[in-house]
Known about the structure:
By secondary structure, the protein is mainly α. It has one domain (3-96). It is built from six helices and no strands. The longest helix has 20 residues, at 16-35.
Amino acid sequence: xxxxxxxxxxxxxxxxxxxxxxxxxxxxxxxxxxxxxxxxxxxxxxxxxxxxxxxxxxxxxxxxxxxxxxxxxxxxxxxxxxxxxxxxxxxxxxxxxx
Length: 98
């Protein structure tokens, strides 16, 4: 699924299927984050955009997906911590697949 399709699904419902689609999307962007550090702010922008969805607003505090979206929100605004935030984002996404 493309990011816009994921966004639309997240806005419609908060089912386990939608959660799995989001995790699949994150797995896909993980490859980009690892291979192209320059793309990190743009990838983070896409992930952070999902914060405004119904699904994201319903996540409980401490949910790993919410933590990933918060890190992405910090990363989308380029700063001196870009490399550190990118590595943290990569680790959090990798942890989802374990």
